[in-house]
Design brief:
- This protein has 120 residues and is an alpha+beta fold.
- It is built from 1 helix and 6 strands, in the order ββββαββ.
- The strands form 3 sheets. It has a two-stranded antiparallel ribbon with strand order 1-4. A two-stranded antiparallel sheet has the order 2-3.
- The site of zinc ion has 7 residues, from loops.
- Zinc ion (ZN) binds at residues 7, 9, 12, 33, 54-55, 59.
Length: 120
């Protein structure tokens, strides 16, 4: 399958790299990058990838910065979501350092941590 996309960053063609230079003689331009769809599809599935639409992270983030309000309004989050979990609290021995005046002294103490055991 030879399908291509143009990079979706509207300013892709303004970034000065040798790879964007096209044209002959005095008619040179910087052109939007052409992207081969599935170029990072190592598992050969048909899972869409963000880099089928953006030539690199820089263009992706320029796009997100330019359209962040539109994206947030289109996919708005009006309330938090929650994932039910079970939590186990575990005690363990940890260390902290105390300054004695001329050196740091390593002191053990009983600390606790929360372990997320499973998702419902
Ligand atoms: Zn680009």
């Amino acid at each position: 399958m030879n399908e291509y996309n143009w990079c979706h960053n509207p300013d892709c063609h303004k970034i000065e790299t040798q790879s964007r230079v096209r044209g002959t003689g005095d008619n040179k331009v910087l052109r939007t990058m052409k992207i081969k769809v599935g170029r990072y599809n190592y598992s050969n599935g048909n899972t869409p990838n963000i880099y089928d639409y953006f030539c690199n992270q820089n263009c992706l983030h320029q796009f997100l910065q330019k359209f962040c309000v539109e994206i947030a309004n289109t996919y708005s989050v009006k309330q938090p979501s929650e994932t039910p979990i079970k939590v186990k609290t575990e005690k363990y021995e940890s260390y902290r350092y105390r300054w004695s005046g001329n050196e740091h002294i390593r002191e053990p103490y009983q600390a606790t941590r929360k372990i997320i055991e499973n998702k419902a």
